[in-house]
Amino acid sequence: MNTDTKTSFSFFAKLIVGLCALAAMFAVSMSVGAADVGVRDVWLAMTTHASGEHLTIIRELRFPREVAAIIVGAALAVSGAIMQGLTRNPLADPGLLGLTSGANAALAFSIAIIPSLGYFGITIACMIGATVGAALVIGIGAARRGGLSPLRMVLAGAAVSAFLYAVAEGIAIHFKISKDVSMWTAGGLIGTTWSQIQTIVPFIGIGILIALLLSRQLTILSVNEEAAVGLGLKTGRIKSLLYVTVILLAGASVALVGNLAFVGLMIPHIVRPLVGTDYRRVLPMTAVAGAAFMLLADTLARTIHAPYESPMAAIIAIAGLPFFLIIVRKGVDSSS
User: Fold this and answer.
1) According to the model, what pLDDT value does residue 148 have?
2) I want to staple 125 with a disulfide (CB 3.0 to 4.6 A). Which of 5, 54, 106, 164 is the partner?
């Protein structure tokens, strides 16, 4: 057995383990909550038409919520991995580089100006807002002589994010929709419906598919852009497609769960020591790990202070901040 075959076998074995862990986490998240239900009830709810209070809770509340957690977790993690590869910046994350704050501002604007706008329209608005946020960060970060270093990108992202969050708050206060915007952007999956999932699945599905198809090119770009040009890659077109992919993934995610920073930062850093730096392996494992992590975060949000719900965004931030500080300490400053 040659080295490539051994490596592929090792990766598939790890991917299967990851999928098993995801399935186990899904079973736990479906069973645990303010109203604990047994695994048998979960099985009956998903395989039969039997009725009962617990079965109704599972079918109508938990099932769509946990499916949404899987989809959004995978989307945010993959978008973070793509951004880290494209920018060669270990701190890259949709929540830290203006995408989610731009989507948030667009969401507030949409609710204020067009209250009757459907969920599909809000999703499109969030994608437009994510595009504006990313453009502002890249433009401001690259304005200074010397180019767009990782530290400048993070600083520009922090400034733009603060500005766009303030814009969203100002819109909410002026139009007296603070409660509506806050409930939407608190960073949770409360009240997720199947119609909402059906709206975002095409965007996220297309985004992840494009990412997987371009994973080899992303691997080359993540190492050296000059080498990519030398190999004949059309780097401008590839980078544009990948940025569009990130916008699709981040915009659709914010439209459903609001602002969740750090997922796209943490998960790729957890995955790379396990599977290496080849994005043909990083992206699938990142999607699985992101989905499992989001299920864990949502389960903790529902159980830490049951029957009340804790903000999922706070739980993720508590886990993500140490990662951010560790990565900064490793020497990002030296690349500025």
Assistant:
1) 63
2) 106
- State how far Cα 298 lies from the chain centre: 14
Query: What are the structure tokens assigned to 207, written together?
Result: 């985004």
Question: What is the pLDDT at residue 258?
Answer: 78
Q: What pLDDT, on the 0 to 100 scale, is given for residue 335?
A: 44
Q: Which residue has the tokens 């595009």?
A: 131
DSSP state of 145: T
> What confidence score (pLDDT) does residue 23 get?
95
Quick one: pLDDT at residue 333? Answer: 47
Q: Identify the segments of the chain with pLDDT beneath 50.
A: 333-336
Largest pairwise CA distance in the chain: 67
Q: What is the pTM of this model?
A: 0.89
138, 211 Cβ separation under 8 angstroms: no
Tokens of 179: 């409660």
Class of domain 68-335: mainly alpha
Tokens of 258: 């609001």
- Which of 246, 249, 271, 251 is CA-nearest to residue 323? 271
For the chain, what are the domain ranges? Answer: 68-335
Q: What are the E-state strand segments in the chain?
A: none
CA atoms of 95 and 50, how far apart (whole Å): 42
